[in-house]
Design a protein that fits this description.
Shape: rod-shaped
Order of helices and strands: HH
Distance between the termini: 27 Å
Helix content: over 70%
Number of strands: 0
Number of helices: 2
Oligomer: single chain
Strand content: under 5%
Largest sheet: none
Length: 68
Amino acid sequence: MATDSHDKMIEAFQNYFKWQERFEYHGSDEAGIKSRFWLSEIRNFASVRRKEIQKMDRLKKYRHVFFF
């Protein structure tokens, strides 16, 4: 089950790979800047996704407390 944050993270990875390849093979400053931007976005989306997963885990662990 994919979430919005998961989809955004996948899209950010795709953009990062595109710009990183351009930076590696062409060495342009723009490509380096955009590579770093997408790495930052990946970090942000990963933080959001991590919180979602932690929340789901907490709900699963404590579900038995509320439902006998």
